[in-house]
Known about the structure:
13 strands, single chain, six-stranded mixed β-sheet
Amino acid sequence: MSTAADYDGVDPERALKYAVQHIKGDRAQIIEGIIEPVSPTWDHEAAAEAIRDQIRPRARELGCVTGSGNLDLPGSSNWYVPDIAVVPAAHAKGATALLPEDTLLIVEVTSESNRDTDRVVKRKRYAEYRAPLYLVVDRQERSVTLYSEPGRLGYTRADGPHPYGTRLRLPAPFDLDLDTAELA
């Protein structure tokens, strides 16, 4: 039988993040200490794919990969699985998880069940952990918002919300216009 002494020196953050990586079956993320399964619908995936298809050619030119790999937020009980992250290929090679600051762009597509998480909680945390660009595709509001210039208290710049159908400019290093009409 285990005693409390058996767990002395165990780092609860590390143990929780280890556990979420070893859940059998579906992928999971940790949002403010709560383990949540990641199981997007096909409609959700279609919206993510519409964005991914537009940014992938430029990401390749920049020597980056696009994916939905794990993002660790050290010092917190958060472990995110973004819908899309654009990261330098050199960072991705052999990595189990990256930091938000290692990305060039993070995209989250809202679902009814996670809308507030993507719009509020993740926006605050991604800014705190220095993700340079954060794009929220809000399927419930049918809008897109690009956040930039991260700081400890959040992003200091927001471009949007813009209704679907608006062309949204992704700044350097992307320098491309996203056509959001495909999201409608």
